[in-house]
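Might you be able to review the protein record set out just below?
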Amino acid sequence: MDNTEESYVVSFMHGTSGSFISTIIWRIINEQDEGVLLTQKNSAHLESPWEQSWHHPEYGDCNTPNLFTGLSFDKIGLVKTHVYPDYDQLRSTLSNTKIVLIIMDDADIPEVAWNCIKKSDDEHEPVTIEEVQRNLTYLYEHRLGAAEYEYFWKFCDSSIVPEDLKSRVLSIKYRDIYKEQGDSFTALEQIKTFTGRKASLAVLESYRTYVTNRNNIWNK
């Protein structure tokens, strides 16, 4: 069993704002009154302040399939990953760890495909936005069950979270990241409730900027 006081795994599919949500959570759990650094493309990939807070005896790659086996954290820790949670490990060796899942559906595919390409640090993309969208749409419509596609489907279905772990798993719908709720946003309010902590004014203002930038991109 680990002795971590507070640790989180942010698990998400590429293109679903996982870096932004990870930074928001890191700011909140560390009670930091700082905003999120954003690129001109509204990407939050400029910083990863949590990288020294998680540890693995064999792997330094947060996206290794075996991430959850041997994973440990500092007193306050976070790791962001494209690996879907291993619920058995969450029960047995990560008893103080909580999971944040970002869930997408078919209506999110065009935007996620755009994010996958335009928010990438690689300026020489080997594929187009249209190709990514076609691939994601095909996966969604045909519900392929091969092992290499399981990661996609798990991030489309919040119902597969085990009943006994639901209090430790927050499933955020991708669209709720941008959904206004009073003077705040649905996902931010969910994170505050889940962590039991408040968001500073700088975090709220940064969150609002991120949503405004996204809405300007999508003319919504």
Q: What stands out?
A: The mean pLDDT is 91. The two ends are 46 Å apart (CA to CA). The chain has seven helices and eight strands.
